[in-house]
UniProtKB/TrEMBL annotation:
<feature type="repeat" description="TPR">
    <location>
        <begin position="43"/>
        <end position="76"/>
    </location>
</feature>
<dbReference type="GO" id="GO:0055087">
    <property type="term" value="C:Ski complex"/>
</dbReference>
<dbReference type="InterPro" id="IPR011990">
    <property type="entry name" value="TPR-like_helical_dom_sf"/>
</dbReference>
<dbReference type="InterPro" id="IPR039226">
    <property type="entry name" value="Ski3/TTC37"/>
</dbReference>
<dbReference type="Pfam" id="PF14559">
    <property type="entry name" value="TPR_19"/>
</dbReference>
<dbReference type="InterPro" id="IPR019734">
    <property type="entry name" value="TPR_rpt"/>
</dbReference>
<protein>
    <recommendedName>
        <fullName>Tetratricopeptide repeat domain 37</fullName>
    </recommendedName>
</protein>
<keyword id="KW-0802">TPR repeat</keyword>
<dbReference type="GO" id="GO:0006401">
    <property type="term" value="P:RNA catabolic process"/>
</dbReference>
<keyword id="KW-0677">Repeat</keyword>
């Protein structure tokens, strides 16, 4: 049998493409195999086999064909796109392990040609890292996305949404994270708080509260916690939460200064039954050897704390 001319190869590939378009996948495979007999390294033939095999629910054959194509020409998009969509669709055993690398390759290829697709793949990669609890990769990849959107002139609202999303992605298992991830979480909160459309607002207050909740889990983040509490108290002077956090923190750290006493007083002014406020005043009175005041504040404060379930204070006492 004589070899096919390059014109015949082109015709066979066109027939394969038409067959795929008409959902005649077995027909498409025949045309591709004809081409491969002649040119065993024909990139498009391997890609079309990948597409047809995937549609015929033969994931192993599809994967093999796409991989072969990526080896033949790693800088072409088609086979990588095919591999990504194959892994996304079927629970292929290699999917979990191989997909991050495939996404990474797509990111490299899209970077200079299609920013929108780059962003889409970037989000998919973050989702994948997030499912696998790879916190640092989530933080680094999402930060890259934000940087790219910033460079492309994203508006304030979009950047706010992106930073806020990062706080949600990272705040879940915060105690298991390494220092770099935690620092990125604090940065995300601080940037999101700066970008909220209106301050003061309910949205801003809730975000601030989440920031303090996360920070208060880290005893070594003292300076940042104090600064954040003071920041929130300045904007929301009648909200008890930041005052409670700072009073609790000062009580636990055993450093109730005069400044700390002022916070406790403010808290008791806002709520005469505030457990942390009363206990703070009691501890301060103890430090100043004012024992009668100490007893009355601590007794009353302790009762309130039981009501609020503030076990931290009780443990301290």
């Amino acid at each position: 049998m004589h070899g096919m001319s390059s014109k015949e190869v082109k015709t066979a590939l066109k027939s394969a493409r038409d067959a795929i378009r008409n959902k005649e996948y077995k027909e498409a495979l025949k045309h591709c195999k004809t081409v491969l007999k002649q040119e065993k390294n024909n990139y498009n033939a391997w890609v079309f086999i990948g597409v047809a095999a995937a549609e015929l629910e033969q994931p192993d054959q599809a994967q093999g064909a796409y991989k072969k194509a990526t080896e033949l020409d790693p800088e072409q998009l088609l086979a990588w796109q095919g591999l990504a969509s194959l892994y996304e669709k079927c629970n292929h055993e290699n999917a979990k392990g191989d997909l991050p690398g495939v996404y990474q390759k797509l990111l490299d290829l899209y970077e200079s040609v299609d920013k929108q697709k780059w962003c889409d793949v970037c989000k998919k990669l973050v989702d994948l890292h997030h499912q696998e609890k790879r916190h640092l990769e989530v933080a680094r990849t999402w930060s890259k996305l934000i940087k790219t959107r910033q460079e492309d002139g994203a508006d304030k609202q979009e950047l706010y949404e992106l930073w806020r999303k990062l706080t949600q992605l990272l705040a879940e298992e915060i105690e298991d994270q390494d220092n770099e991830t935690q620092q990125m979480l604090w940065t995300a909160f601080e940037n999101a708080l700066d970008l909220v459309a209106s301050i003061p607002s309910e949205e801003h207050r809730v975000l601030y509260q989440r920031f303090l909740q996360c920070l208060s889990k880290f005893p070594h983040e003292t300076t940042r916690l104090k600064k954040a509490c003071e920041g929130m108290i300045n904007i929301y002077p009648t909200i008890q939460y930041p005052l409670e956090v700072i009073c609790l923190y000062l009580i636990e750290s055993g450093s109730l200064t005069d400044e700390g006493q002022q916070y406790c007083c403010k808290l008791v002014e806002l709520n005469s039954k505030s457990g942390p406020g009363l206990i703070g005043l009691g501890v301060k009175a103890l430090q100043d050897k004012k024992y009668e005041d100490a007893v009355s504040h601590l007794t009353e404060g302790n009762v309130q704390s039981v009501v609020f379930g503030m076990t931290t204070i009780l443990a301290f006492l």
